Amino acid sequence: MLEKMETIDLDQVIDEFETITKDAESVQRETLQKILEENGSAEYLQNLGLNGRTDPESFKDCVPLVTHQDLEPYIHRIVDGDPAPILTGKPITTISLSSGTTQGKPKFVPFNDELMETTMQIYRTSFAFRNREFPIGNGKALQFIYSSKQFKTKGGLNAGTATTNVYRNAQFKDGMKAIQSQCCSPDEVIFGPDFHQSLYCHLLCGLIFREEIQLVFSTFAHSLVHAFRTFEQVWEELCADIREGVLSSRVTVPSIRAAMSKLLKADPELADLIHKKCSGLSNWYGLIPELFPNAKYLYGIMTGSMEPYLKKLRHYAGDLPLMSADYGSSEGWIGANVNPSLPPESATFVVLPQIGYFEFIPMKGSLGDQVLFLEPKPVGLTDVKVGEEYEIIVTNVAGLYRYRLGDVVKVTGFHNSTPELKFVCRRNLMLTINIDKNTEKDLQLSVEQASKVLAEEKLEVVDFTSHVDMSTDPGHYVIFWEISGEVNDEVLKECCNCLDRSFVDAGYVGSRKVNGIGPLELRVVRKGTFNKILDHYLGLGAAVSQFKTPRCVGAINKTVLQILCNNVDKRYFSTAFS
């Protein structure tokens, strides 16, 4: 059991949340004032002529809406070690590597202690509501969490994925203890250099502490599914480890072996029990509650692109409830799930008005706006309307001001005076299966790289599009090409591998390496296929002058997908990550 410690007062957390959300507009003004006062000396704000003003009206008049691309010159100076106060008053010492990409490169996002504190505020808030409905005892959590290595930037800053920066922060471990969610695995497993070995040891730790496990967690639903798919393959090996008290030779990292040797003791009775339970299951249905009889729920991000994994997750979970984790991004947090009993498909997130300053661009402009190509003006947090969709604008504590997050959300209601949001989609996202995020630009860059291989054969790509195929397990990207002439199989196999390698998004590369996303497929279509797609759109009343080839064809676009699939001449699967 956990050592005795001071836990947080959950009733107090809920009371504070209720108070803050009752007057969200005032809290937003105060939050903006605090952000601007603390960072008033930052070069970025100084150049915009705020002159010390901190009210929302002056802020909106002086500070433009920006994308990551607009901020890149400032962020690169920070990354390269410029000591001046560039985006924040206090120096930024850590950089998060976003899984999203800009111009085909991973994004750098500033990270600081203030942002870490907002992370813990979100965790505490959602835990308080979760624990009120599904109380957990003072046990352990089986957490499938993995921390990649931090590295030093040219300017000496620590850099890593957003989750790595959180897991390596001292506040995280203390905070997790305070909300009774301490990981059952040692740090050596979490911070291990090999994903497969860490996953195996997470499973083994879970079995060793099976009676104490109160909840099962991973950042994303697909990681939970992947963990228990792996269990199906290695369960007998895990039983053997427990029976003999000796760790499998598949774990070779010395630090992990040393840490696990302190936990692993020969326990034939436990090995027999696990063997009996696994042998008695029908197609692994209800595996998780069988293994962990005191677990109360499964927890992780289960919305948006994670929804396809819920069917399999429910199969493993049996009667255990699934709960969707909070809503945020590498750039910071937005809202907490304070309605934990809702199924993930219906999950909503209440915006915490004290963790940042939020604005919302209506997705539905007036007719006049559309004709003039003017974007509707952003509205404040408390001015959004139920049932409408918006793009989120974030001003945070780590140097992002009126930053376009690129997420589209729907307002489903209000909690007191702050809105409840449901995630709809990424505004510019084209291809996504789990944590991968690839835009039209990323697809274009990938095709450009691969078409260089064709150019050596004096051929070119006439046109292209893409599709996410979720009918396979795991899902994979399909790229459709129309080529200007005949080309041999070896060249096209190399094109296929090049396409796969050219998606540099951290989420995609990481998922491909652990088979969370299957090999990319190149389908070469017959000459004239894209003209048939044009004809289809013209038949619907489109004008040739306005026609654009859809760069990503979703399953909902059945006719276009059918035209493509009916005209496939050759198919190739990538071996780039084999």
UniProtKB/TrEMBL annotation:
Name this protein carries in UniProt: Jasmonic acid-amido synthetase JAR1-like
Domain of life the protein comes from: Eukaryota
Source organism phylogeny: Eukaryota, Viridiplantae, Streptophyta, Embryophyta, Tracheophyta
